[in-house]
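Re: 4'-deoxy-4'-aminopyridoxal-5'-phosphate structure - here you go.
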Amino acid sequence: ATPMARPRQEDTAVPEAFTRFDRQPGFRQVRMIQEGAQRFGVENPFFHVHAGTASAHSEIAGHPVINYGSYNYLGLSGHPQVNAAAKAAIDRYGTSVSASRIVAGERPLHRNLEQSIAELYGVDDALVMVSGHGTNISLIGHLLGPKDMVLHDEYAHNSILMGIQISRAQRFSFRHNDMDDLERLLQNHRHRAERLLIAVEGIYSMDGDYPDLPVLVDLKKRYGAWLLIDEAHALGVVGHRGLGIAEHFGIDPRKVDIWMGTLSKSLAACGGYVAGEKALIENLRYLAPGFLYSVGMSPPVAAAAQAALKLLKAEPERVAALQARGAYFFDRIRALGLDTGSGAGIAITPAIFGSSLHAVRLSSALLQRGIHVQPIIYPAVPEKQARLRFFLSSTHSQADIDITLDALRACL
Ligand code: PMP
């Protein structure tokens, strides 16, 4: 039989909006942002190129800047021991493991890293994946199904929401850090689901605040739910030794069902982890799609995370310095009369201006004075919540902060 001739594009009645990339809503939105920046005479605040390692100091367009845009909280990205570990791993194992770990991609440094992470939390086991964002998607997407439910903080990270979408579980959000609102949802909906997951973050990266862990542990027990805590911004940041939100509250981490976190922030690498009971980790190790159908973690990346973890444990003074800088910065910025929202004086401090344009202009003016701080604008946050967001690092000095506050004062 002769194959049917396919109609040419111009013969079909398909509107161009369905075929042309420059007609897509996402592209139009990007254009609007770019044209808006031009119209208001501000520089595009996105995709600034940093010339080297970015911690308290960095270099943009040939100019040195005091940098508040990176989450190199403990200054470990670029640390000689971390770099040396990554280089040694390349010499021994190459740059790629060239297969999923379940087939030919397993190397000793994978399990070593996982055991170190499990030890940190005092739980049975852990699993690492090549992306933090992908970890939440694979974890939640694999663990839950359509008969299940997720109750999540309204500010939960995009990766948590994407995981829920993939799982097809029902979801409801509760007001930010509002445990009464969460309990109301539990009362109203617990009976309508088989498994129920409460998903929160250890530290919220837009606001620099945290949930009431003791209440969460109590609620999850009383309502027969699992508790997932995303520690992306909590590990290395809170707790005496930087062990995260459980240490901050003095709670046994084994009371939390699922610890999730990233290797990309305090741990100076790239990727995500899940830590918890053996039965959870084994399930993921054999079946979670983002693990099973993805290459094993690159050797230098795993080795860098392991070296950073070792430094985190050996040098708690880094954590203490970060916490001291965070508190100092917070006090001074509040003394300027700025709105720090629900910020709690830790390594992330927002300064809320309530106008995207104002935030972008201010960020641009600060950059002229050698201060790099990212504006967070609509739609990442509601327009009235548009802000500058300052990430502190243990490597910021008090002098850096004082210079920054002088610059801010001059720009306000
Ligand atoms: N969870 C949270 C709370 C995050 O803030 C982020 C990223 N900033 C991720 C997950 C994703 O992690 P990664 O960037 O390492 O992929």
